[in-house]
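Researcher: Following up on the earlier apo prediction. This time include the ligand. It's zinc ion, with the SMILES given after the sequence.
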Amino acid sequence: MSRHLFSILFYLSSLACGETLYLRNFTLIDGSGGPAVPNAAMVVTDGRIQAVGSKDKVPEPKDSRAIDLAGKFVMPGVINLHGHLGNVVDLTQDPKNFTKANVEAQLKTYAQYGVTAVLSMGSDQPLVYDLRAAQRKGRPTMARIFTAGKGFTGPAGYPTSAPGMKGVPYEISSPAEVQKAMDELAPKNPDFVKIWVDDHLGKEKKIPTEISAAIISAAKKKGFRTCAHIFYYADAKALSEKGLYACAHSVRDREVDDALIQTMKKNGTWQLGTLVRELSTFVFSKPAPFLNDPFFTMSVNKSVRDTLASDAYIKKQQADKDLPKYPGFLATAQKNLKKLYDAGIRVGFATDSGPPARFSGFFEHKEMELMAQAGFTPSQIITIFSKNSAEFLGWQKDIGTIEKGHWADLVVLTKNPLTDIRNAQAIDSVYIAGNKVR
Ligand SMILES: [Zn+2]
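Model: Understood. Below is the ligand-bound prediction.
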């Protein structure tokens, strides 16, 4: 072997085991909700944080690679607890699109926007488990996958009539069928179980409460937590009473009250906002204000943007007879999310991005803006998308806050997100498990 080749091999093996990064001179926003730490430093070995804090307490290790982040801000990666992976190409949803290449393209798009983990809510195919397993063996270079696998609805229930959704969820008509489906799902070890509980404003069939209750209880027996797409107050309350882990959307038919708050508190039910999902129901009924925003165009191709701006597309949105109600649903969702949070209900960060015209990555930042508009402070929003959302997943020992022992899932910003959450868009770089992915 030539000496040259030997030295290359030696260099490569030194990269493979024991790479240490030393990030320095940044302002640390660790996601715990405490004050930012100026002049901070962080040591990351093989993707895990070994030390982090004020630079005088975190010296530069020998043989590390220093990255100077003077003037920059480091916050935790964004965890989105409600997305949908792999079924959409451009504006078309079809389960045929669910390929490794398409899922990975979307995970990379999320990562470009600082979204370092996503929980895909019930529209996945078995391939998702292979992709998740491969990620969990090593250090991912794109957003981390969490999945509810194949979700549940009633026979011909919502959302099976949505374009590209026929055949995607289980369609369950009896408790016996619940058990059969759960026996099929459980060995795949989904991170959560998902149910769609909605009649889409009276236009579709809603799964009956007793079947949903049977799903929640069958899931619980197998050790799984259930998240439900809900719209109505009555469903949120009835399912929380049955032990629901999370409402995967806000209540939108009325303002929440103390009775629901007490029920959710007693049963430990979490609330996910998905405010931007409501925005998406009406924002394209006119040329959307962000169509030429470089932060949008960086991931959305010209033909999609041209379609969104076209008369035909806009007319189609305007033809929806329920359109006038949608802005009110957003306002109700905003009010309810803040009210539940203030009452001490656990709130996680979620967008419902991924379906057609709900743009992965970009929408997570719109969600932050809508939360700010609802009265959340930037610090609260950051804590919700990092610490709280990691706790929701049960992964708080590995991700979430920036602390010793956690994976280095980080977003480096050139502006301070604590003064204005829109500064979270000023992305300099993104790290997942210490891998620089942007
Ligand atoms: Zn969804």
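Model: The domain at 78-393 is CATH 3.20.20.140 (TIM Barrel).
Researcher: Noted. I'll compare it with the apo version next.
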